[in-house]
Amino acid sequence: MTKEKKRQTILGLTGSIGMGKSTVAGMMRDLGVPVFDADAAVHELQGPGGALLPAIEAEFPGTTGPDGVDRQKLGAAVFGDSEKLKRLEEIVHPAVAAMRSGFLRDNADAPLIVFDIPLLYEKGGQQGLDAVAVVSAPASDQRERVLARPGMTVEKFEQILALQVPDAEKRARADFVIDTGTSLTQTRNQVAGIVRTLERAE
Ligand SMILES: CC(C)(COP(=O)(O)OP(=O)(O)OC[C@H]1O[C@@H](n2cnc3c(N)ncnc32)[C@H](O)[C@@H]1O)[C@@H](O)C(=O)NCCC(=O)NCCS
Ligand SMILES: Nc1ncnc2c1ncn2[C@@H]1O[C@H](COP(=O)(O)OP(=O)(O)OP(=O)(O)O)[C@@H](O)[C@H]1O
């Protein structure tokens, strides 16, 4: 019998606003794991000279300029209005999917790769993933972290929370729960354990 070629494991990484997803993604990169960052892709597509600026300006006049999308303005337009948010997603999501395919091609030989997808459960992005890790912390930590951010208000935080699948449901559906309500060292150790397990997975 020929030995089957070890296939690649694709881990989805997600979590609600302020749960520590970016920090955990950074820890995975430090361990040498290629991470596709959906949010960074959105920033690139919406930044200065970004490919989506003409489409966004046509749909949401006055929200783009030489520096790209004015995220405060566009956020204010869409976060309280589900129809507008849907129209924005129809512009953004196909372009992100195309960048993700390119990343897959570029990292075809890595034993483990990570897709950092903030809205994985909200938008049904589980397709093609072998496992999902959810970053999670107590709601009080989440609130404190988010409200400390410049430009954040209680109203905006609550609008965003209402758009997201509840943390408890994400935890229940995940294969791994990464706890960020502890010290950074404890989280880093937990992340290293998961990466070791998945790099060995066949
Ligand atoms: C409206 C925009 C410009 C606001 O940017 P801003 O920098 O103010 O907020 P940021 O992107 O950091 O999002 C803040 C929080 O809202 C959440 N969020 C963003 N978009 C959505 C959405 N479509 N549905 C639910 N939650 C969302 C994020 O996960 C995050 O937790 C931006 O969020 C956007 O373009 N969203 C639509 C594209 C999208 O779905 N992006 C998510 C990653 S693929
Ligand atoms: N154990 C921990 N693990 C991860 N983050 C922690 C921990 N303890 C404290 N923090 C802090 O919590 C914050 C988490 O922010 P981070 O940007 O990683 O969240 P996020 O989930 O990516 O947010 P968003 O979805 O809103 O972009 C950081 O400032 C980080 O230093």
Automatic annotation (TrEMBL):
Reaction it catalyzes: 3'-dephospho-CoA + ATP = ADP + CoA + H(+)
Query: Signal peptide: which range, if any?
Result: none
Specify the species: Novosphingobium indicum
- Binding site residues for ATP: 18-23
In which pathway does this enzyme or protein participate?
Cofactor biosynthesis; coenzyme A biosynthesis; CoA from (R)-pantothenate: step 5/5
Q: Which UniProt keywords apply?
A: ATP-binding, Coenzyme A biosynthesis, Cytoplasm, Kinase, Nucleotide-binding, Transferase
Q: What is this protein called?
A: Dephospho-CoA kinase
Q: What does this protein do?
A: Catalyzes the phosphorylation of the 3'-hydroxyl group of dephosphocoenzyme A to form coenzyme A.
Family per UniProt? Belongs to the CoaE family.
Protein's cellular compartments: Cytoplasm
Q: What is its EC number?
A: 2.7.1.24
Look at the named UniProt entry and state the broad enzyme category this protein falls under: transferase
